Amino acid sequence: MKINGNEIKPGNVLQHQDTLWAVVKVDHVKPGKGGAFAQVEMKNLLDGRKLNERFRSEDKVERVRLEQKDFQYLYTQEDMLVFMDTDTYEQLELQAEFVGDRAAFLQDSMMVTVEMHEERPIGITLPQHVTLEISEADAVVKGQTQSSSYKPAIMENGVRVMVPPFITAGEKIIVDTGTLEYVRRAD
């Protein structure tokens, strides 16, 4: 779908220079002399490069709609993560580096959303919160108040997280997969 340069918004995915770009930031500029334009900061969805580009309001750009499909995480095989489409039961294998650090949060049978463009995976979204058990937690330092300070702890998946002083090893906590931060104790 073609859109004008002044209609570009953060979050849009554009086909530009024969590749896909996610719009990160848009500044609309009206100089004293000349026509208005949009200064657009974009990130390449395939290799992570960044690009700053100017689009005049009369410029036409191709806006791409990504297809979102739900997949169930099955298992890890060497450096590949295996997912299953819950509708067709087809399996999808992705490189562990495609998911990045968040791969540590994948749990058996976890549902994830994979963004696809022309049947090719572009991005993956994990559930916002996951429940994990604390395997190691430092002891509370005397004089440390409960409200102001956090201590380091290691979760069952090996990821370090800062937790309040009252959390001990063996407790289950809820962690935000986007920020990798402690949210609250699990019920």
Describe the overall structure.
- The chain has 1 helix and 16 strands.
- The protein has one helix spanning 96-99; strands spanning 2-4, 13-16, 19-29, 37-44, 50-56, 60-64, 67-77, 80-85, 91-95, 111-117, 120-125, 129-137, 151-155, 160-163, 172-176, 181-185.
- The chain is mainly beta and 187 residues long.
- A 6-stranded antiparallel β-sheet has the order 1-6-2-3-4-5, with no helix packed on it. It has a 5-stranded antiparallel β-sheet with strand order 9-8-7-10-11.
- A hairpin with a 5-residue loop joins strand 4 and strand 5 (50-56).
- The model has no long low-confidence stretch (mean pLDDT 86).
Q: Report the biggest beta sheet as strand number plus sense, adding barrel if it closes.
A: 6 strands, antiparallel
Helix content: under 10%
Distance between the termini: 46 Å
Mean pLDDT: 86
The number of strands is 16
Helix/strand class: mainly beta
Instruction: Please report the number of helical segments.
Output: 1
Low-confidence stretches: none
* Global geometry: flat
Radius of gyration: 22 Å
Largest beta sheet: strand ordering = 1-6-2-3-4-5
Question: Into which percentage range does the β-strand content fall?
Answer: over 45%
**What is the N-to-C order of secondary-structure elements (H for helix, E for strand)?**
EEEEEEEEEHEEEEEEE
